[in-house]
Write a structure and sequence with these properties.
Blueprint: E1 6-11, E2 21-24, E3 39-42, E4 45-49, E5 60-65, E6 73-74, E7 84-86, E8 91-96, E9 99-100, E10 114-124, E11 129-137, E12 150-153, H1 171-180, E13 187-191, H2 198-202, H3 215-233, E14 243-248, H4 250-261, E15 268-272, H5 282-287, E16 295-302, H6 309-321, E17 328-335, H7 342-357
Parallel strand pairs: 1-8, 12-13, 12-14, 14-15, 15-16, 16-17
Antiparallel strand pairs: 1-4, 2-5, 3-4, 5-7, 6-9, 10-11, 11-13
Helix pairs in contact: 1-7, 3-4
Length: 358
């Protein structure tokens, strides 16, 4: 694209028959001007070349709509957004809209998942300790007899409700948004981390500087102790193609390891900013990964996480694909500006769930 003009490139996971427009302080904030209708280039991607005939204000403010202010863009939690503000006059603006208002409604409270504390002291025999385990059930779980795919997530403290001092992913709200799109039929099992033992439990190998890693015991706990309990007490689709595991940072690292060690159990992996630098040996396990079972892997990495995060995730992808297993499907979500935090991982969560299961 030419650098002498201003382009808007929009990505959105929500596809319906409503056209998309850009509205701002350059067109009187009219939400459905035909000159500012974006052109669909492929599924989920739209583009607009800003008209030469329209003068650009010094400070550009704008939002995306689907034809009216009762159809305006929303954030990943289904909330209203602030105006987008830029001073850039040329080049390409890359924007993402995770959700849209539909006829005036946004987050529907009746679509919120039911959160249950399975136990605040679930037995972990592999470590001779106990741990809090939660389950998030689809909003209509008790009204149906359906069975559901299951995603096991690490670091429950950072996933929903008030979260931790680091914030949270907001998966409870995002599951409601997904439900509004017909993609809420999934069970989330959230396992609390072990505090000061988090590194030990989530690291597959010993590290000379960081200490002993007992990730093998941890993934044994999920696959041999927790999953059988969940399958026995809830309506789950027990097969590997309906069973996922995921997490961020060290939680992403141990989720990779779980997929490599137990491919017969986990067929869906959600890897956000995995701490591959902690355990370089993970690449050797990936080289030895000879399973020919169909596996889907969604991996996020951000350029704002350090110079090695994106190259490490790309190396993991190439290592896995180099084994000639054509049944591995890997979706890399790479954000050059992406940060290493709960807010960023929360934005990736609904995209990952939809790609992995729907």
């Amino acid at each position: 694209m030419s650098n002498n003009v201003l382009y808007f490139e929009l990505t959105t996971p929500v596809e319906d028959d409503r056209p998309i427009y850009i509205s701002g302080n350059f067109n009187g904030w009219l939400p459905d001007k035909e000159d500012f209708r974006l052109k669909k280039t492929e599924e989920g991607r739209y583009v607009l070349k800003f008209p030469h005939s329209v003068p650009l204000p010094e400070k550009l403010e704008y939002k995306y709509t689907k034809g009216g202010w009762n159809q305006v863009e929303l954030d990943e939690f289904g909330n209203s957004t602030h105006n987008r503000i830029v001073t850039k006059k040329l080049g390409v603006m890359h924007d993402f809209v995770p959700h849209w208002r539909l006829d005036g409604s946004n987050l529907q409270q009746d679509l919120m998942p039911e959160i249950r504390l399975i136990s605040d002291s679930f037995d972990m025999p592999q470590f001779d300790t106990k741990r809090a385990v939660y389950i998030l059930l689809p909003h209509d779980y008790d009204k149906t007899d359906k069975k559901y795919p299951v995603m096991y997530l690490q670091d429950a403290q950072n996933l929903f409700q008030e979260g931790s001092a680091f914030g949270n992913w907001g998966i409870d709200k995002q599951l409601a948004v997904l439900a509004s799109r017909g993609h809420g039929d999934v069970i989330i099992v959230a396992i609390a981390h072990g505090g000061e033992n988090r590194y030990k439990e989530y690291s597959p190998y010993n590290n000379p500087k960081l200490g002993k890693g007992e990730g093998r015991k941890y993934v044994q706990f999920i696959s041999r102790t927790l999953k059988p309990y969940i399958d026995a007490n809830f309506r789950t689709l027990t097969e590997r193609e309906f069973t996922g595991i995921g997490g961020s940072s060290l939680g992403g690292l141990v989720s990779i390891y779980a997929g490599l060690m137990y491919p017969e159990v986990f067929g869906r992996l959600m890897l956000f900013s995995p701490s591959l630098w902690v355990s370089p040996n993970i690449y050797f396990d990936a080289i030895d990964f000879l399973s020919h079972l169909p596996t889907k892997i969604y991996a996020y990495a951000g350029g704002g996480e350090g110079h090695s995060m994106i190259p490490n995730v790309e190396k993991l992808k190439q290592t896995l694909l180099r084994q000639g297993n054509k049944k591995i499907d890997i979706n890399l979500s790479l954000d050059p500006e992406g940060k290493h935090n709960e807010s960023q991982w929360g934005k990736e969560f609904p995209k990952a769930i939809e790609w992995l299961f729907f």
